[in-house]
Amino acid sequence: MLDYDEVTAFLGEWGPFQRLIFFLLSASIIPNGFTGLSAVFLTAIPEHRCRIPDTVNLSSAWRNHSIPMETKDGPEVPQKCRRYRLATIANFSELGLEPGRDVDLEQLEQENCLDGWEYDKDIFLSTIVTEVGGQKFV
């Protein structure tokens, strides 16, 4: 069986070209490391909830109660991926009914986020998620 040094002997000795290539490739480690770490900041998922289009005619009370609430670590927070059926709450708003008083919100039908999401911009102004995830894909 041949030794590694015997098999690679035709390549030549460790000369200036090999040293140059070695150090240039070694220098690329630093930018590659930054690229890997940038994903931590660019792919963060900020707090979000379903978008309610401005074109829907809702009273301010129904706009404030259009997202179902869930208990998360103690306090109640808006659900991230569900909303009350938009046609239903628009009809209740048009009739002048008040959420929680005239209509039991627990009994309303829910739907997925059909119009994208609204993102909290307190921590991150822009991430991959807010730029691409906020759009509605057909």
From TrEMBL:
The chain crosses the membrane at residues 20-42. Keywords: Membrane, Transmembrane, Transmembrane helix. The keyword Membrane applies. This is Solute carrier family 22 member 5.
